[in-house]
Amino acid sequence: MDKRDSHAQRIRARRFTPLKRALQVPVWADVGLRLGGALFLVFVVVLIHWLDRDGLVDNYDGHISFLDVVYFTMISITTTGFGDIAPVSTQSRLVEAVLVTPIRFAVIFIFVGAAYNFVIKRSWEKFRMDRIQDQLTNHYVVLGFGVSGAESVAELVARGTDPRCIVVMDMNRDRLAQAEEMGCNVIEADATRDEHLMAVRIAQAQTVLVSAGRDDSSILIVLTVRHLAPDVPISVVVRAEDNELLARQAGANNVINPVRFTGLLLAGSAQGAHIADYLMDLASVGGRVQLVERPVMAEEVGKPMNQLANGGYAVRIYRNEQAIGFWECANGVFELGDVVVEIRPNDPTSTDQ
Description:
Blueprint: H1 3-13, H2 27-51, E1 56-58, H3 66-77, E2 85-87, H4 90-135, E3 140-143, H5 147-158, E4 166-170, H6 173-181, E5 185-188, H7 194-199, E6 207-210, H8 215-228, E7 234-237, H9 242-250, E8 254-256, H10 258-271, H11 275-283, E9 289-295, E10 313-319, E11 322-325, E12 339-345
Helix pairs in contact: 2-3, 2-4, 8-9, 10-11
């Protein structure tokens, strides 16, 4: 087992509380089911006491009526036990011990469970959600956890990103369960709604990754995110070439077309058996080398592109939004404020660049 697989297993072993957990049924339906179950059990106990009323004694008037049975059932289930009505026969006491007592516990658990779900649990989850929100800053927000979204999160974790710094938003509970198993914070919500994006502090995010599965949905999400977070970098996946310009106009900083990228890999493989393999190696942290984008360090200013401080190989620098290749020797000296894209070996002993 390699280090990456071992790291992934450790990540899956950790679980974190989601930001929000939706109810399986509406609140009124849940209340109705619990109340109906409790009333049914009470009715069963009333019926048992009525059938066994000869084993009961009323210390007040000596007569057991149906109202007395209902009264005795309620004080018995609630464990009040005033003692004015009591079981006296061996059969009645056996019924109380074997049949009524388990039902009494069941009724209590129903009401305690209801109180937990509707008061304690909701208050606790709201408190934990608020606490997670307060800690969200400089985090990654992944809007859509389909194939592309899941792969991007797995790659971020493999690159060393703490999964607790990743928030996944999706409407599919199965996908959210998968993201939660990876250690991410999850929220079941609509990424096109302002209040849902504000709940994950979209304006304080480091990067937003959008992969909604449909180009129109992804572009709408980009518009919404850009409206709420004017300065946050947005990367989006679109599949139709005609929609790439629309995605950029909507506010996306990076537009990724997996169909086009696949075509590039196929064309590369036609020209050479190892070109596609090397491109995949560059794109993934699991390969021998990887592409890294970073600001130029102070000790690198004034030096040529082939003299990186960390031993990598610079292939491009960005200066004032202008791309400068490694072959452009005249502009190949680092300046303060430059951003460099370098090929860096994952294995320090590797000479493959």
